[in-house]
Amino acid sequence: MSKDSTRSMPVPVATAATVAVGVAVTAALDLALLWWAASAIGVAAAFATALWADGRTRGAGDPEGVREKGTTLHRTLVVPTALVLSVVAGMLTGWFLDLSLIEPVAAVLGALVGSFLAHLLYRRLSAMLALSFGAVAAAGVLAIAVTALVLQLSGIPPLATFTRMLEYGTRPDSLVQVVNDGTTYYLAAVAVAIGFKMKLFNIGVDGQYRLAALLAAAVGGYLVLPPVLSQIVVMATAVAVGGAWAGIAGYLKVTRGVSEVISTIMLNSIATGITAYLLSTDRLAVEISTNNIGTPPLEESSWVPGIPAGFLGSDREIFGLVVLAAAVGIAYSVMLNRTRFGFELRATGQSQSAAEASGVDVKKMVFLSMLFSGMAAGLVGMPQLLGASHYYALDFPTGIGFIGIAIALLGRNHPVGIVFAALFWAFLNQAAGILPFDGYPQEIAVIAQATIVLTVVVVYEIVHRWGRRYQQQQIGKELGTAAEPKEPAAVATGTAAEGGTGADGDQTPGDGERGGEAK
Questions:
Q1: Rounded distance between C-alpha atoms, residue 16 and residue 24, angstroms
Q2: Region labeled Disordered — which residues (predicted)?
Q3: Model confidence pLDDT, tens digit, residues 65-101
């Protein structure tokens, strides 16, 4: 009987069974335990069900996680990582839903999400991706330890400080601010990541988005257009200005060989000078208040309505252009992984000489990469401009471009990784806002952010190199196994070399009987 014939459970049935076990266990334990404990135990039970059902499923092919099953790395790293991720995801979902739903319903829905991920992650999580999660977790632990040590040496209780930051950062109003800040951080990080994929360091995102926001705000303030068309014109202006400003650096790179680091730093300074020159009451600005000047306020037809955050328990609104950030992330992922341009971009970033030998126009790719990076950078200021301030003034947020560099590094230039990195960075900024009121220095968040960036880069590089060696060893073992010579088939009364009767009863000639034909 073949191995596949013993697998009688379809994958959808296994998934349903896994989710049903997780939800049922959570619902039963929620009557006697705290909701988070019930959810964690329920998702763990669902994960055990996924392990049990995996050997009995059929018709699923061999996903990467299944192909690696049985290896030491899969047992010691992939399985624990999948378990932890599914449990954490279930608990976070339950906590988030508990802000707007009753506790039993939130716990059950959280368990449903965690149980589904338990089945999915066990089958799909690869060793390299698990290594990436492990690197981030190790870097986070190191960063917390270093920050705690600094606090302890400064005479500040680490545990009380972290508890206070966590309590303040998870308030409903704080969560809304985290999402809003994370939206702009995400756009900046994507702009940086496009250059990173090409091994280009676009350090000029800050100047590109500020100049783009200023000119887009001026266009929107002086032109009165109907809704939708007005928003399109403002954002198109920002995209054009950001792309043109970054395109200067790309043009200098491909025609004169000027390093994009040097050119974008210089262009940042020039953009700052141009912004200061134009933001004057004699040119584009008007008086906003006694101590503030800015572009004429946008007409209400240009505003992008916010999303009510009542489901979070807050009276504030989430930027409506959070949808724009999601669309940019999807477009970035599709462009990178589903288009010829994305393939050539990654190939050129890995080796320009190899890409050029394959027929890729390297100079064209460099210029287009900088152009697209600048176009994404032009959108960084749009959530704030169209969703909150409605004009560009002296107090418009600055420095977001440099934050985007750190977030792109934390997220490893991955569209999903950047989401978590942006939200985490925004959370630290918001959570640190309560510290001065308690007499603690707000720079604690800066220490934590800098330490996390450093440790993530170092730890991830170490883990990535080890993972590559592990993969090479596995490939070597597979090739060695495939290259091993097979044992000669035995015959009934002798081998073919010695002569004798073969398996079919015919007389097999020996070496001496082959004569000249054998020679």
A1: 12
A2: 479-519
A3: 455 666 777 778 888 889 999 999 999 999 888 887 8
**Identity of the amino acid at 444:** I
pLDDT in tens, 345-404: 888 888 888 888 888 889 999 999 999 999 999 999 999 999 999 999 988 998 999 999
Could you tell me which residues are beta bridge partners of residue 307?
Answer: 318
Q: Are 485 and 474 in contact (CB under 8 A)?
A: no
Name the fold adopted by 175-419: ABC transporter involved in vitamin B12 uptake, BtuC (1.10.3470)
> 215, 165, 236, 171: which is closest to 379 by C-alpha?
236
Asked if residue 150 has pLDDT above 50, the reply is yes
Question: CB of 367 within 8 A of CB of 252?
Answer: no
pLDDT band at 103 (very low <50, low <70, confident <90, very high): confident
In a 13 Å sphere around the CA of 69, the CA atoms on its Cβ side amount to 14
Q: By C-alpha distance, which of 105, 89, 2 is closest to 43?
A: 89
Query: Ramachandran region of residue 110, left (φ > 0), alpha (ψ -120 to 50) or beta?
Result: alpha
Indicate the helix (H) or strand (E) that contains 289.
strand 286-289
Q: Give residue limits of the domains in the chain.
A: 11-125, 175-419
Q: Which of 282, 304, 286 is closest to 295 using CA atoms? A: 286
